[in-house]
Amino acid sequence: MPEMPEVQGLVDFLAERTNGLTVTKVAVANIAALKTYDPPIDALTGRRVSAAARHGKFIDLETTSEGDAGAIHLVFHLAKAGWLRWYDQLASTVIRPGKTPIALRVGFNDGSGFDLTEAGTKKSLAYYAVRAPQDVPGIARLGPDPLGPDFARDTLAALLAGRRTQIKGVLRDQSIIAGIGNAYSDEILHAARMSPYALAATLDEAEVDRLYDAMRATITEAITEATGKPPADLKDAKRRGMAVHGRRGEKCPVCGDEVRSVFFADNSLEYCPTCQTGGKILADRRLSRLLK
C-alpha cells in the first residue's frame, strides 16, 4: 500500500511533470472508483494543472481555467493495491472497462499522461473531482500530518492521552495521525523499540519521546529516499528501506534476531522480539482464532 513517503514522491513527480500542462483527456475505466458527480469528471478537460499536493495518503491535482475563478481538483487515493503509471507518451488505445486494471486515464497537451491502476479483485481505489479538497470525506476526517510544522512532541502526547488502544492501531488511524499505514507503523515502532501491542495511554514520557523521534526520523528518511524517483522506482525504494516490514524470517539489522510476523485477516505486522517485546513472541492471530 502506498503510504506518505511514496505518495509524497508521486506528488513531487507530478508537480514537476504536470505543472502548467493542460488536461486533454479524462477516460473513466472503472466507474465504481469515481466517487463524485458534481462537478463532472470531464470538467477537468481543457483546464491547466496549477499545483500538486498531498493530504495524508490522498493526491491532489489542482486545475484552473482562464475566466473561471474557481479551481477543480482531481483527488485520488491509491488504497491497498493501486498505483500511478506515468507515460511520457500516453497510449492512444481505447480502454475497455472491465477488461483492464486501469481505473482512470488522464492525458495532457504535450502527449504525456498517466493511468491509475489497481491489481487484484478487491477494488478500493477511489478518485474524485471536487471544488475543494475538503469536499472529499476522507480528507475532511484526517488527523494532523506528523511532519507538519505544528506537530510537536506534545501534539503526539495529547493524541495518545487516554486512548486504551494498541499503539499500532493508533498510528494507522488516519483520523488520529494522517499518512502512516501498515508498513511505516511497523518501521516506526521498531525504531522506537516499542511493542505494537503497547497501549497508547500507558506510554511514559520517555516512550513518547522515543516514538515521536522515531516517527519524524523514519518518515523523513523515507521521503528523502523517494524524492526525485519516477513512479516506476518508488516501490523498490520502499522495500529496500524497510528494516522489519516485509522481512519475516530475516535478521533484524539492529540486533540480529529473527524478524517475526503476526497475521490478521487481510494484513500482517512485522517486529523484532529482542528490540520490541523483551524477547516475547507475539501470538499468531490466525492460530488464536482456530483455538477458540
Automatic annotation (TrEMBL):
Record-linked Gene3D superfamilies: 1.10.8.50, MutM-like, N-terminal
Assigned keywords, A-Z: DNA damage, DNA repair, DNA-binding, Glycosidase, Hydrolase, Lyase, Metal-binding, Multifunctional enzyme, Zinc, Zinc-finger
Gene Ontology molecular function: any one: 8-oxo-7,8-dihydroguanine DNA N-glycosylase activity
Pfam families (UniProt xref): Fapy_DNA_glyco, H2TH, zf-FPG_IleRS
Lineage: Bacteria, Bacillati, Actinomycetota, Actinomycetes, Micrococcales
Record-linked InterPro entries: FPG_cat (IPR012319), FPG_N (IPR035937), H2TH_FPG (IPR015886), Ribosomal_uS13-like_H2TH (IPR010979), Znf_DNA_glyclase/AP_lyase (IPR000214), Znf_FPG/IleRS (IPR010663)
Origin species: Microbacterium invictum
UniProt domain Formamidopyrimidine-DNA glycosylase catalytic: residue ranges: 2-115
Coiled coil: none
Record-listed E.C. numbers: 3.2.2.23, 4.2.99.18
Descriptive protein name: Formamidopyrimidine-DNA glycosylase
Entry annotated with the keyword Hydrolase: yes
Catalytic activity, reaction form: Hydrolysis of DNA containing ring-opened 7-methylguanine residues, releasing 2,6-diamino-4-hydroxy-5-(N-methyl)formamidopyrimidine
Family stated for the protein in its record: Belongs to the FPG family.
Top-level lineage group: Bacteria
GO process terms (BP): base-excision repair
All residue ranges annotated as the FPG-type domain in the record: 243-277
Cofactor field: Zn(2+)
PROSITE patterns: FPG_CAT (PS51068), ZF_FPG_2 (PS51066)
